[in-house]
Amino acid sequence: MSGAPLRVALLGCGTVGSAVLRLLAEQAGDITARVGRPVEVAGVAVRRPDRHPGVPAELLTTDAHALVTRDDVDLVVEVIGGIDPARELMLAAFSAGKSVVSANKALLADDGVALHAAAAEAGVDLYYEAAVAGAIPLLRPLRESLAGDQLTRVVGIVNGTTNYILSRMAETGAGFAEALAEATELGYAEADPTADVDGFDAAAKAAILASLAFHTPVTAADVHREGIAAVSATDVARAAEIGCTVKLLAICEKVEGERGASVAVRVHPAMIPTSHPLASVGGAFNAVFVEAEAAGQLMFYGQGAGGEPTASAVLGDLVAVARNRVAGVAGPGTTAYAGLPVAPMADTPTRYHVSLDVADVPGVLAQVAQEFAAHDVSISTVRQDGAGEAATLVIVTHRAPDSALSATISRLREMPAVRAVTSVLRVEGLA
Ligand SMILES: NC(=O)C1=CN([C@@H]2O[C@H](COP(=O)(O)OP(=O)(O)OC[C@H]3O[C@@H](n4cnc5c(N)ncnc54)[C@H](O)[C@@H]3O)[C@@H](O)[C@H]2O)C=CC1
Ligand SMILES: N[C@@H](CC=O)C(=O)O
Ligand code: NA
């Protein structure tokens, strides 16, 4: 193959970086043929060189900044994670005229607009397919294939660790801590797994998805976020009783209101019917539904975490930016021209499933129903289980502003006839 090799600086050699290094070596011949020039590793920035016995010593360095700015480096792959020093390293790469491939959703969700602007100013690429839903081609379809359509909704399971934990809890009765330890061992969890469990990782991905889908700057701070730490065995059992399962969902919607369009972006656990396609997404798999005016419904499904699946997306981007480099062009950037406001969660319409332990005395159902009515929340179904001291009321509402639903729950907790509110979860996808 003619032409000088394109030389890559790899920043980070953990779960993803080590898989990128291995696959790049194994597929060198095919990648050369696909790019039109060889793609080889110029150096690997790590924290502790002694911990990487499989990497040739002459490639290892602890000085990531010096590596990205070296004259013999053409392209940069950032798989360190976190905000600093990844941000500074990316900006240094752009200033030095190098395209960047990253898997870093935390950084892109925090500062995507500025990073895209810096890449555009330098005339280089910033690609990050691995940052959302791992191996699944999702961001380039949003940026390119669907660029001629109007997107209305993106909803999905975008965190492999929490989906693995919820699947294990529902299917095998595994405990939370045990399932999290397994997910960490399998390389799904973030360096700090509270980023997964508390929904930060999914919120960052939701911000990236909403920004691309609605051409609007959305940061992780704009996303309403609830993790799975409060999901109890009771919630999982109550869900099963009504033919549902519990999933951590990321939901990005375009909402038309009296004051014009806005975007609502939220991450929270929800009950979904077992007949819903997202209900059967198990383990660390991810799935994302995209709804567009002309295209209708699209579903993207595949492995959302793990070294090799994520490395596949990184290498796909690496081939794309290498091809652009060979052609002397930069690929399409992103646009944030719509500049839509982000709607507060309080105004976002949701449905609740509520389970209450009540005193089984005459009039208790009427009292409970009265609280829902007082907040303008319409009830869809009510079921009473048991009798005597320990009756249980299970209520599913219609859609109402989330603030009205949470205010109703607060009032129910104060009612003498309500012994305990044992389960509260939002419901999605019920007819
Ligand atoms: N593990 C997964 O399934 C997925 C991970 N990602 C993202 O990929 C990135 C990397 O994730 P993992 O490989 O799982 O993390 P990891 O923790 O296994 O690897 C990160 C590596 O970077 C090194 N590092 C940190 N600071 C450094 C610095 N200043 N200079 C040189 N090396 C440094 C760490 O020592 C570690 O070896 C993160 O942004 C993560 O969110 C994205 C999709 C899936
Ligand atoms: N920790 C993340 C890794 C992929 O983005 C997850 O569990 O999904
Ligand atoms: Na992806």
Automatic annotation (TrEMBL):
Its cofactor is a metal cation. Keywords: Amino-acid biosynthesis, Methionine biosynthesis, NADP, Oxidoreductase, Sodium, Threonine biosynthesis. Pfam families: ACT (PF01842), Homoserine_dh (PF00742), NAD_binding_3 (PF03447). NADP(+) binds at L11, G12, C13, G14, T15, V16, G17, S18. Gene3D superfamilies: 3.30.70.260, Dihydrodipicolinate Reductase, domain 2, NAD(P)-binding Rossmann-like Domain. The keyword Amino-acid biosynthesis applies. It catalyses: L-homoserine + NADP(+) = L-aspartate 4-semialdehyde + NADPH + H(+); L-homoserine + NAD(+) = L-aspartate 4-semialdehyde + NADH + H(+). L-homoserine binds at E190. Pathway: Amino-acid biosynthesis; L-threonine biosynthesis; L-threonine from L-aspartate: step 3/5; Amino-acid biosynthesis; L-methionine biosynthesis via de novo pathway; L-homoserine from L-aspartate: step 3/3. Its EC number is 1.1.1.3. GO terms for molecular function: homoserine dehydrogenase activity; NADP binding. NADPH binds at K105. GO terms for biological process: methionine biosynthetic process; threonine biosynthetic process. The active site is at K205 (proton donor). InterPro entries: ACT-like_dom_sf, ACT_dom, Asp/hSer_DH_NAD-bd, HDH, HDH_cat, HDH_CS, NAD(P)-bd_dom_sf. Residues 353-429 form the ACT domain. NCBIfam families: PRK06349.1. Catalyzes the conversion of L-aspartate-beta-semialdehyde (L-Asa) to L-homoserine (L-Hse), the third step in the biosynthesis of threonine and methionine from aspartate. Belongs to the homoserine dehydrogenase family. This is Homoserine dehydrogenase. It comes from Klenkia brasiliensis.
